[in-house]
Specification:
mainly beta; 10-stranded parallel beta barrel
């Protein structure tokens, strides 16, 4: 498998327009074969319209193949789960064994599970080349001793949620098997894992993780709710969201890939669907690269919202709330800085710590950050060429709305970063697009409308603070380097995520600023 960083460079043109969400669906209600469908819809972002990209591109870097969601309904093996009375029908191969309340599947094929086990387990122990498809059709499995659903061996396991059904998996609060390679999640797979289908699944990870795949993980569809004591959803080699609605509540990290040993692994891609995360630690995390190309990712609660060595946003909508950094390019395998170091100096560079091999690259989509620590933080460099970036950063001077150890390069898009003024970072000298820096004598309260007008009196920027702010860095294509702009507070505003359009009716003039002149101590009207 190629590294995802290589994939990103090889398909740079595709990612520049964004990867649209790809949905896979199927039904066996008619008894005919099931066909996985690939969406060819477009996704609108703040930088324009993102084109759908063929799944062939994604398939080259993952185990996912839409053909795996195609099968002949007549070949299904029906398994009815019942305490002490689980039964198997139409299984001429004897691939399903029932031992008490443990149901074991040992061969490739399609198996439809319905019914419930109040203290049991479903085990997949198939061959290394076998593709095992499990249809959950109103299945509810709980275990009092360990994991209720374990894929011990297979080439790929597919968990397909039947249309119109509700399914549930719940594990024990403590596991009998405490070995190094023992399962540690309510849905646990040692093989590549795909979750698809339009039904719903509730996963209660009472012991450790909710869903954990020790190879790759692709979430192709489904309405899935995960509540986990530790990590919510983990794909070791990679974790990909293509479509569906995933709600994650986790005591530690929410959605992540954590392979630190194998080169090119440990990456996350959000390529469609919706992901909502409330996490005790990181919301969405990758060891290597975290990419958002389409869909909607919302981190409602976290210590750090998005974290990876390389963070790439080319489309979609991301919203992050964090107790510490909102977006944090750090960690990973290389670099010369420690995690969470102090930011770059004025003008986007020259910080107190050297820049390492960490990057934030934003070329499209919409990113909104509400952080108590640094807003957009890179222990290396950050580049913005498109999209919309709104940062509602810290109110304390020990952190900044923008914190970049290397250079912050702004060549396009719209950036509005509000927060404290003590550690303000601004676009670097290599930036092709200009901007302004506003530093106020006293912090403005939440809900304050800040507007910029050019020499003709036309409003070129409108921003509404979501919390107290003492500074604002604003950059857009409407700002011309060297031109003077008048700063107003008040007036009327119609905004989305703080940015939008306004008028100066009733506004109060605060002074002037010159585009491209960035100085931390400088405020409106300063000379």
């Amino acid at each position: 498998m190629k590294s995802f960083r290589t994939y990103l460079s090889v398909t740079a043109l595709a990612l520049a327009v964004g990867l649209a969400g790809c949905s896979a669906a199927g039904t066996t209600s008619t008894g005919t074969s099931i066909t996985g469908a690939t969406s060819n819809s477009t996704t609108s972002g703040s930088s324009g319209t993102a084109e759908a990209v063929s799944l062939d591109t994604l398939s080259a870097d993952t185990h996912y193949d839409a053909d795996d969601l195609t099968w002949d309904a007549a070949s299904e093996v029906a398994v009815t789960l019942a305490d002490g009375a689980s039964a198997v029908t139409s299984d001429s191969s004897s691939a399903v064994k029932v031992d008490g309340d443990t149901v074991t599947i040992s061969a490739a094929g399609t198996y439809r599970l319905s019914g419930s086990l109040t203290d049991g387990q479903v085990v997949v122990a198939a061959g290394e080349e076998d593709v095992v498809r499990i249809i959950l059709d109103g299945a509810d499995v709980t275990s009092s001793t360990g994991s209720p659903f374990v894929v011990q061996s297979a080439n790929e396991a597919i968990v397909f949620l039947a249309e119109g059904t509700s399914n549930a998996l719940a594990d024990a609060a403590s596991y009998t098997d405490q070995g190094d390679d023992a399962p540690n999640a309510a849905l646990y797979s040692m093989a590549d894992l795909t979750i698809a289908g339009s039904g719903s699944l509730t996963v209660d990870g009472n012991y450790n993780d909710g869903i954990s795949a020790k190879d790759g993980l692709v979430l192709a569809a489904g309405n899935v709710t995960v509540d986990a004591k530790d990590d919510g959803i983990v794909g070791k080699d990679y974790a990909v969201l293509l479509d569906g609605a995933y709600q994650v509540t986790a005591g530690d990290d929410g959605f992540k890939s954590d392979n630190e040993e194998d080169e090119g692994r440990g990456w996350v891609l959000i390529n469609g669907g919706t992901l909502n995360v409330s996490a005790g630690d990181d919301g969405i995390k990758a060891f290597n690269t975290l990419s958002i190309a389409a869909g909607t990712a919302t981190v409602k609660e976290s210590e750090e919202g998005l974290e990876a060595q390389h963070i790439v946003i080319s489309g979609g909508t991301a919203s992050v709330t964090s107790n510490d950094d909102g977006v944090n390019a750090s960690g990973g395998s290389t670099g010369t800085t420690s995690q969470g170091g102090m930011g770059g100096g004025m003008g986007g560079g020259g910080g107190e710590m050297a820049a390492g091999d960490y990057t934030v690259e934003i070329s499209g989509g919409s990113l909104t950050i509400n952080s108590q620590g640094d807003g957009l933080d890179s222990n290396g460099s950050a580049t913005i060429t498109g999209g919309t970036v709104v940062v509602n950063g810290p109110t304390n001077d020990g952190n900044g709305a923008l914190d970049v150890n290397g250079e912050l390069v702004v060549n396009g898009g719209t950036v509005a970063a509000a927060g404290s003024s003590g550690m303000a970072v601004t676009p670097g000298t290599s930036s092709a697009q200009s901007g302004v820096q506003l530093t106020f004598g006293s912090a403005l309260p939440a809900g304050t409308t800040i507007q910029l007008a050019d020499a003709s009196g036309a409003v070129v920027g409108t921003f509404v603070t979501s919390k107290q702010a003492a500074s604002l860095v604003y950059s857009s294509a409407a700002i011309t380097a060297g031109e003077e702009y008048t700063v107003y507070t008040g007036g009327t505003a119609k905004v989305t995520a703080g940015l939008g359009e306004g008028t100066l009716d009733g506004a109060q003039e605060q002074g002037t600023v010159t585009a491209g002149e960035y100085t931390a101590a400088r405020g409106p009207g300063g000379r």
